[in-house]
Amino acid sequence: MNVFSNIWDHPKTSVAGLLIAVVSMAGVLSQQGITLGAVGTGTVVTLVGALASALLGLLAKDPGDAASPQVSRSAGQQAKLGAWALIALLLPLPFMGGCSATTVAQNIVNWTPALQSAVATLDSAGALLAPADAQVFTAATAGFDGASNLLTAQAKAYLANPSASTLAQMQNQIVTLEQQVNTALLQAARIVNPASQQHTLASIQAVGTVVIAILALVQSVSSKHAVEQMAARSTVKIAAVQAYINREQAAEIVAGHYDEPVAMALIQVAQVEQSEAMAGF
User: Fold this and answer.
1) CB 144 within 8 A of CB 122
2) Across the strands, what pairs with 38?
């Protein structure tokens, strides 16, 4: 059998096999202490392994979905997934959109309209819920308006004057808002009505997606010691809320902001989530 012909005829199987090999190799290299260099607070090996794991999750489908025309994809579409993986490895994350404080400050400010919009949408979401669910929702999201407005003002101040003092203010405020989001997700998960719960979680996550993007940007211009202090204040970790996060929704928000394909944004969301978890958030 022609090996290259087989790869061409079965791109999804070939890509899945390659990703499994990458995950296996990353595990072996990590055990041997081989890092291949640093990426943020992690290593190249752990990043590649995390990417491969995320892509394997994208490739996996429930067996029952195979019969549905809506979820079936062409071989060409499946083959593109591997290409996006390579692009994601070669290009810098848009969340880390620059080395200078000024560039990062501009990127933070660019995210603030999306933050304000998500919070405004969140404020109106409670009106669509049953009274008992609305009460839980209101309690869970109390303080979002004030925290987001303060962060927006600090981001603009940092852009005007990227000093150590303005950065310190943002470091404190972004962790405060990130913790509010994580706590709200846990509280909203207690809503019994499935439709109300889904609506509530989606509204909170829209805010959370922007908050994580800004957190990553602030982290990129912070010292190692400052990041450790920020992570220490983060008592409700990302791992605790992962079950309530819709990564497809997050990817759509990121893709819309950076005007890029959703497939690319989905990989970037997985990268940032892994990076933040490794940093202690």
Assistant:
1) yes
2) 43
The domain segmentation of the chain, as residue ranges, is: 3-90, 97-278
- Dump the DSSP string for 51-110: HHHHHHHHH---GGGGG-TTT---HHHHHHHHHHHHHHHHSPPGGG--SSHHHHHHHHHH
**CA 161: distance to chain centroid?**
28
Cβ within 8 Å of residue 259, ≥6 positions away: none
The residue type of 271 is Q
Q: Do residues 269 and 251 make contact, with C-beta atoms less than 8 angstroms apart?
A: yes
Written as one letter, the residue type at 72 is S
- Averaged in consecutive runs of 10 residues, what is the pLDDT profile of the chain (281 residues)? 47 55 53 55 57 56 47 48 47 52 85 92 84 88 91 92 91 95 93 89 94 92 93 93 90 90 84 86 93
